[in-house]
Design goal:
Chain lengths: 389, 839
């Protein structure tokens, strides 16, 4: 999208990283890429070992030699850092002066982490989103579109990642109207405006332009439920409308309904076919876009690989077995999150089990890993840990 | 197969559709006007407790089956779980709980706040109390309902959709064990999934209070649904930890105890430690401790059977362990784990407590004592138990710091998960949270009334067939729990022991105090001298002392001292105005100090017991000494405590029944059938408290008759408790020939018609032909033998008939010196009828 060519911080030492990140087709996987990917990972490990004390000590602790990564299979042995660890510590592989953007991500137990990006890491991630949207045909620069954003109404100083993402997502189709479901109250807080959402949807139906609904699934559900409770007439949003969800049910897990139920309700109430309702998965620590295919599967794009690990032995598991979700991606140069163990349970499946036509395997998220017996307690503890650091 | 009627609703089993219908109308449910009756709750719990302690009882089998089928508990968990529940439901445990938490075994009874105003207070239930059971413990919700019942509420227990029907079956069993049949009106248990907000919102909307057990999310969603006015009682998860002084941290015994706590119950209890804090800020000390603890765990852990973590717990353990391993790349941190992964020690230099993923995972942290409060305080509302090991020189300081920091309990390491009966829960008593404290100011002068139960009447016990009458001679009160012993049966037969627990004694004394207050003792103004006999295991003086103590009245505990002059002088010197004693002693006191006390005329009240004052004695005391009020202070006995009291409107001998303590029957003199109307009969008492070791239907040996009243018609004093006139001892009524004669009648005739105020003893004798009555009167009391016999013949019709009509009975009289009267060896009481006939 930008005319200037995007470059890794060190073109010589990160040549393979550049090559992987430059791959433009998200779901095309010639086997040659495996070797490239392994090389990029090796470069990335060396980069962080050279720029991050923590990472160097960790490699020593795990007695890991970067040179031992010869092929894709070896990548599974690369030491990983739990995503949670980035929520507890500010870990960085670039000088502060090179920080282009930083995000505060609130963890499920409430901790706040600062994740830092240099210009490369940030922009390469954005470019991947562009590629994915393009792949699915969601880039329609000539079609005026009305937006309903289930995200926080923007403030100039907002440092909340999701809010930024959703505004950013508006660039793929020019905005006619934008309505934020989580509205600023002027006192630093936000309030969910269900009636505003419903009114906007009715207006949008009348406008006749395609509608794009982005953001937290919980608030979409609350809107649809309100429509149902009020016995309102079902809407028929114009053709070309799209629902693109993300961020999970954070804070509303108790009210969560299944994907199937939500999609069916959205189709019934808004008239958007289920194939145009997509969820996404991602994390600030791992900003690769995972977007549902038309069959609602998260296929792994060309820039990353997924390993599922046994929750007890942490050994890699094959297809179909539930375990920790681990991501590998070589493109992050600002934080050593190129091998990150998520706090989610998932299983990995061959592309053949989906049948949408995408050739890469997909993963299914099965829920949070572990049990925080007392959330507030863990929260209080985390805050204390922060304070005493 | 799905149970078609999984909900227990006020005594019946209903299905889902019916539940929804009833829940929709829940806000219109008319709650019982009375709090759940404590007596019935205690009885049903005691019987349920006994059933649960028996392995083969049908109730226990039903409950075990429910738990096993749902997998909520394993076979091995059963025995300890049921014995724990049974122990909590025992009568004694619940009575202790009531007394500790609500201050009384009768918490809903409006009782006086003080004696000089018309103010009363009591506990009152909140109304409809909804309990949301936690999902991790099958018994917690049920026990919360027991607490709800003890606090008088109507209880609605919500159990989870996936839970076993344990609570429903348990509450059905409880209702079946309630012989009164009323408790079922206070019990609802419904299986409702937390996702059914449509049903739950209606349940919460009808609630006066919600007791929420479980995690933060559950509590937060309840808070949203409950009406603003409803009290929300949260019982959230808690975190516990261990604190060690530096000296104790290196001891082998401490390490073993810490290791045991790490393995016990896989740390799943809220009171299991998640963290060990050392009184140090030295990393080396901490690291050495962690290594020692690891060595100890290596030895101890295999000895304690392991319940392996499920996948979720295993995942949490892996994540936390991984993170902590990486911490060592940033600072002082260490992970020591068992080779087989069965335990792990996570040492960390940051002092804050951290939640452990449990299953033998323990944090080791530095926490110098100066920092305890600062570090713990932010987690204060989540803290529960601090296990402590330190020497006696540190225990005061460390305990104070831990408690100030927020710990709710400090316990010995190795016994952290233990508890004791009546212990507060997470720093709070449950019952006061399930109640309101209410006050009443009566719109009239309520003097004399101690509590509102005096204004109600109690139903007779629900006997299917009345138990046998226990004669006085067969009195026994064997009770292994007894701690207080008095000599029983002073006036008849061989002395036995009457036994009490201190609780029973305390109860009895409160009622004794109520009786004295009703009789006219003014706790604010009177100066009372206790002149009852004392010593030799005799209960008189002691119990009056205890009653006066409860009234907080000015008391001079003199006892029946033989130096009557000294006693009289003390009365004058200390401005005593109220005397409590036995009539014979008091009469002696007044007669022998007539000059002094006649001049003082300051004794305005006499409260007597044990014997009676005759009319003549009363007249004498009023006229000569100015005693304005002479009343029975208590009708009581060392065997069964206070039985009656006199109010200001009671004529001589008439008493109100202590109805909260006793059920009274008056049975015919010669057969075990109730008398009719005001017929004279034997007084037969049964304890109201089914847990009492006192005999049922105890014929105390006194005779009397009912004071007839229309049902529901109170005494002019306002009390509804039954009234009876006490006529004396069973022995006072004796059979001669075909007549029943009564000692009291003789005494009354002599007092009324001969103005006699001395002692009277009737001796029943026989010569070869006829039975003979000998009347003994005090020598020098102004009544000659001849006058005595003549007066009796003139005024006692039955006597005259037998003596002068039928000529079957001989009558004589004699003047007797005080020391020649026959008296009880035990109490010194005058023996009124001495029967030496052979029959």
């Amino acid at each position: 999208m930008s005319g200037e060519r995007l470059q890794v911080p060190d073109a010589k030492k990160l040549a393979a990283v550049q090559a992987v990140a430059d791959l433009a087709d998200p779901y095309s996987f010639p086997t040659a890429y495996d070797e490239l990917f392994a090389r990029a990972m090796r470069e990335c490990i060396a980069w962080h070992a050279g720029h991050c004390d923590f990472y160097r000590r960790m490699l020593a602790l795990r007695a890991f030699k970067p040179d031992s990564v010869k092929n894709l299979k070896d990548c599974a042995r690369i030491p990983f850092v739990p995503a949670n660890f980035f929520k507890m510590h500010e870990i960085i592989s670039i000088p502060k002066s090179a920080v282009f953007a930083h995000f505060t991500s609130s963890g499920t137990t409430g901790q706040k982490s600062q994740i830092f990006f240099d210009r490369w890491s940030f922009s390469a991630g954005q470019r991947m989103v562009d590629a994915v949207f393009k792949h699915f045909g969601f880039v329609t620069p000539k079609t005026k579109t009305n937006y309903l954003l289930y995200s926080y109404e923007t403030e100039a100083d907002s440092t909340l990642g999701t809010a930024y993402t959703d505004n950013y997502l508006c660039k793929y189709a020019p905005a006619k109207n934008v309505f934020h479901a989580l509205r600023r109250t002027g006192t630093g807080a936000h309030e969910f405006d269900a009636f505003g959402c419903i009114q906007s949807l009715r207006d949008y139906e009348a406008h006749g332009l395609p509608v794009r609904i982005f953001g937290f699934p919980a608030f979409l559900y609350f809107t649809l439920k309100r429509m149902r409770d009020l016995k309102m007439k079902n809407l028929r949003l114009p053709p070309g409308s799209l629902i693109f969800l993300g961020g999970g049910w954070k804070g509303h897990a108790g009210e969560a309904v299944s994907k199937e139920e939500l999609y069916a309700l959205a189709q019934e109430r808004l008239g958007i076919p289920q194939a145009r309702i997509r969820d996404s998965f991602g994390a600030v620590e791992h900003p690769i876009p995972y977007c549902e295919c038309a069959n609602h599967r998260f296929h792994v794009p060309v820039w990353s690989r997924v390993v599922i690990r046994d929750v007890r032995t942490l050994e890699p598991l094959g297809f179909g077995k539930p375990g920790f979700l681990q991501f590998l991606t070589p493109f992050l140069t600002s934080i050593p999150a190129h091998s990150v163990l998520m706090g989610d349970l998932a299983s990995l499946h061959p592309a053949s089990e989906c049948g949408c036509g995408i050739e890469s395997p997909f993963f299914t998220v099965l829920g949070r890993a572990g049990t925080s017996k007392n959330k507030s307690c863990a929260l209080a503890a985390a805050e204390l840990l922060g304070a005493s650091r | 197969m799905k149970n078609p009627t999984p909900h227990f609703w006020l005594g019946e089993w209903i299905g889902d559709a019916e539940l929804e219908k009833r829940v929709a109308a829940l806000d219109a449910l008319i709650l019982p006007a009375e709090p759940a009756p404590t007596g019935a709750v205690l009885e049903a719990c005691e019987r349920t407790s006994r059933a649960l302690s028996k392995k083969n009882s049908p109730l226990r089998k039903r409950l075990e089956r429910a738990l096993l089928e749902s997998g909520a508990a394993s076979k091995a968990d059963m025995a300890p779980a049921f014995s724990e529940i049974a122990a909590m439901l025992g009568r004694a445990a619940l009575e202790t709980k009531l007394k500790r938490e609500l201050g009384s075994k009768r918490p809903f009874l409006l009782g006086r706040v003080s004696y000089d105003d018309g103010l009363f207070e009591a506990w009152a239930p909140l109304g409809l109390l909804v309990h949301v059971a936690p999902q991790n413990s099958f018994a917690t919700g049920t026990l919360s309902v027991i607490e709800g019942l003890l606090s008088g509420n109507v209880n609605f227990l919500k159990t989870g959709g996936a839970e076993p029907p344990f609570a429903q079956l348990f509450l059905e069993g409880l209702a079946q064990n309630d012989s009164s049949g009323v408790l079922k009106n206070y019990l609802i248990a419904a299986k409702i999934s937390s996702k059914r907000a449509d049903i739950l919102s209606k349940v919460f909307a009808a609630a006066d209070a919600v007791a929420a057990w479980g995690g933060e999310d559950a509590v937060a969603s309840i808070r949203k649904m409950a009406p603003a006015g409803a009290r929300l009682i949260e019982w959230g998860h808690r975190i516990s930890f261990i604190y060690l002084s530096e000296a104790f941290a290196s001891q082998a015994e401490t390490l073993e105890r810490v290791a045991y706590e790490c393995c016990h119950q896989e740390q799943l209890s809220c009171s299991s430690p998640q963290c060990v804090c050392l009184d140090t800020d030295n990393w080396k000390t901490l690291s050495r401790f962690a290594e020692n603890l690891a060595k100890t765990l290596n030895r101890i852990s295999p000895k304690i059977p392991r319940v392996p973590p499920d996948d979720a717990a295993a995942a949490e353990i892996s994540l936390v362990t991984q993170c902590q391993e990486l911490e060592s790349c940033l600072g002082q941190a260490q992970v020591i784990a068992a080779k087989d992964g069965s335990w792990r020690v996570l040492a960390d230099a940051r002092p804050a407590l951290a939640p452990s993923p449990l299953h033998r995972t323990i944090w080791v942290k530095p926490l110098p004592r100066q920092k305890i409060i600062q570090v713990l305080r932010p987690m204060k509302s989540y803290l529960q138990t601090a296990g402590l090991a330190c020497g006696v020189e540190d225990v005061h300081e460390l305990t104070r710091l831990l408690l100030s920091g927020g710990a709710a309990r400090v316990r010995k390491i190795g016994e952290m998960t233990g508890s004791y009966s009546g212990e507060p829960h997470d720093g709070l008593y449950a019952l006061p949270r399930y109640c309101r404290r209410v006050s009443v100011q009566v719109p009239f002068d309520g003097r004399g009334i101690s509590a509102f139960d005096e204004l109600t009447s109690y139903p007779p016990p629900a006997w299917t067939s009345p138990p046998a009458v226990t004669p006085k001679e067969e009195f026994s009160s064997e009770n292994p729990a007894a701690r207080l012993f008095f000599k029983s049966g002073g006036s008849t037969g061989k002395p036995k022991l009457s036994t009490f627990t201190y609780d029973q004694y305390d109860d009895d004394m409160w009622f004794g105090a109520q009786g004295l207050y009703a009789a006219g003792l003014d706790p604010e103004k009177d100066r009372a001298m206790n002149l009852f006999f004392c010593g030799g295991l005799y209960g008189g003086f002691i119990s009056i002392f205890s009653a006066l103590e409860r009234l907080r009245v000015a008391q001079f505990p003199m006892a029946a001292h033989q130096d009557l002059k000294m006693v009289a002088q003390a009365i004058v010197d200390y401005k005593v105005n109220a005397l409590l004693g036995m009539p014979s002693y008091l009469m002696n006191l007044f007669e022998q100090n007539a000059a002094l006390l006649g001049k003082y005329r300051g004794v305005t009240k006499i409260f007597y017991g044990g014997e009676h004052f005759t009319e003549a004695q009363r007249r004498y005391l009023k006229k000569r000494f100015g005693v304005g009020l002479i009343r029975s202070g208590a009708y009581g006995s060392v065997d069964i405590g206070p039985m009656g009291f006199q109010c200001g409107r009671c004529a001589d001998g008439v008493h109100h029944l202590q109805q909260k303590l006793h059920f009274l029957e008056i049975l015919k003199l010669d057969e075990d059938r109730p008398v009719s109307g005001e017929e004279v009969g034997r007084l037969v008492f049964s304890p109201r408290d089914p847990g009492s070791p006192k005999p049922m239907r105890y014929a105390i040996g006194d005779v009397g008759h009912w004071i007839s009243a229309e049902p529901g018609e109170p005494c002019p004093c306002g009390r509804l408790s039954p009234r009876f006139k006490l006529l004396g001892r069973v022995g006072d009524v004796f059979r001669v020939g075909s007549f029943f004669l009564n000692y009291q009648k003789f005494a009354q005739i002599l007092s009324t018609h001969a103005d006699y105020a001395g002692e009277l003893q009737i001796c029943l004798q026989e010569d070869s032909r006829k039975e003979k009555i000998l009347l003994r009167v005090s020598k020098g009391a102004g009544l000659s033998a001849a006058q005595c016999a003549a007066a009796c013949l003139k005024h006692y019709g039955d006597l005259a008939q037998a003596v002068t009509g039928d000529k079957t009975l001989l009558l004589s009289a004699e003047e007797t010196r005080p020391e020649d009267f026959e008296r009880s060896a035990a109490s010194g009481k005058l023996l009124r009828v001495v029967d030496t006939r052979k029959r």
